[in-house]
Amino acid sequence: MLKDGASCPSLMKRSLTRDERLRTERSIKSVFVSGKVLRGRGMQLRYVANNLNHNRYLVVTERKFGTAVRRNKARRVAKELFRTSKPEQTQGFDLALIVFRGDYTFSERSRQFRVLLGKAGIL
To answer: DSSP readout, 22-52?
Structure first.
């Protein structure tokens, strides 16, 4: 909110909207079964076209990632990467990001993420 009570339309939402989350079992299965796979250092991207005018996102950590605190932090970082790169992305895809363990900084994760999206032709 601005000082006069008006909101600025150029400000992004702080979280992914309900429509931007990949939620149904059918949609998630389609990404993991028929989606294309790109592997990078520290993460893996699976994606498939969804015939919508927006992207839908899912973040998963590997099974042996670590404690709940570390898993949740990794998911928060990945969601922030999705959220901040939304304006630059080509729309119409379901994206699942699998995050692997490792002591990566936010900037390293960001670089890894952008490389994967670039290879997919989404960024």
So the answer is: ---HHHHHHHHHHSEEEEETTEEEEEEE-SS
Q: How far is CA 54 from the centre of its chain?
A: 13
Helix pair angle (68-85, 106-120), 10° resolution? 50
CATH architecture assigned to 18-120: 2-Layer Sandwich (3.30)
Q: pTM score, two decimals?
A: 0.83
Tens digit of each residue's pLDDT (9 = 90 or more) over 87-106? 899 999 999 999 999 889 99
Grouping H, G, I as helix, E, B as strand and the rest as coil, residue 57 is strand
